[in-house]
Amino acid sequence: MSASSEAFPGERQRLITERLAAHGRVLAADLAAEFNVSEHSIRRDLGALAAAGVCKRVYGGAISLASDGPITARIEHEPQRKRALGLAAVQLISAGQHVFIDGGSTNLAIARSLDPGMPLTVTTNAPLIAVELMKLPKVEVILLGGRLSPVAGSAYGFTTIQQLSHFNFDLCFLGACALDAVKGVTAFDMEVAEFKRAVVARSGQVAVAVINEKLASIAHYQVAACEDVGALVVEEDAPEDRLALFRGQVAQIVVASSS
């Protein structure tokens, strides 16, 4: 069935669910134009889908929960795409640096892509990432403690932020719930956003690696402006119309290779 104003709410929601599965995110304005209905109707549809656990509402639309579900589920989501991002991201690292790797499934792929022969000090707030780092003989691993979030698979909160005061990082790989050319890096949880802001403040350079679904989306809490991001690592097939919004906003865009 083609998208049209004849689609009833249930049918629209089925079609919206298909688009979320295919693209990871939808914009209310685009859906309203496609289905020839008001944005208010689309917002009701997205609200119903969010209540059913299909998606999470974000500013201007919604994202698939596969993009922001529990860490155990996200690790299994698009592993080859994240591996490509990881391989591209580690090219930003130099021997001898002190690097912070934030929690997240894409950042786990970065840890797994590190050169085992490169001497580094790596601090992380994610136990799963720390386990991967311990496999590397030349890497000194520092694991921050605190309250562990089962969704992020990382420690956050006052205790974790306090520990950051002891460090100055050459480079951090910041986990991004969402990324927008105007709003920058954002997060869904206020406490998580506070921790990420503290990491940015302790870092000489900030890098963010994102799959396509997180480009041009906005979560609820501000983390960092685009001008604070030194390197944005994106997929080989990242839509050019979305990337164009970031050119001139971030210092460097690194495009991953699919090979």
The pLDDT mean sits at 88
Residue share in helix: 25-40%
What is the CATH class name of the largest domain? Alpha Beta
Global geometry: elongated
Give the helices and strands as they follow along the chain: HEHHEEHHEHEHEEEHEEEHEEEHE
Strand order of the largest sheet: 6-5-4-9-12-14-15
What's the gyration radius in Å?
19 Å
Stated plainly, the CATH topology of the largest domain is called: Rossmann fold
Class from helix and strand fractions: alpha/beta
Task: Describe the structure in your own words.
It is a single chain. The protein is of the alpha/beta class and 259 residues long. It folds into two domains: 9-67, Arc Repressor Mutant, subunit A (Orthogonal Bundle); 72-255, Rossmann fold. Mean pLDDT is 88; it is low at 1-5. The protein has helices spanning 9-23, 28-35, 39-51, 71-75, 79-89, 105-112, 127-133, 158-164, 190-201, 240-246, and strands at residues 25-27, 55-58, 61-64, 98-101, 120-124, 139-143, 147-149, 154-156, 171-173, 178-180, 184-187, 206-209, 221-224, 231-234, 253-255. The chain has a seven-stranded parallel β-sheet, covered by helices on one side. It has a three-stranded antiparallel β-sheet with strand order 1-3-2.
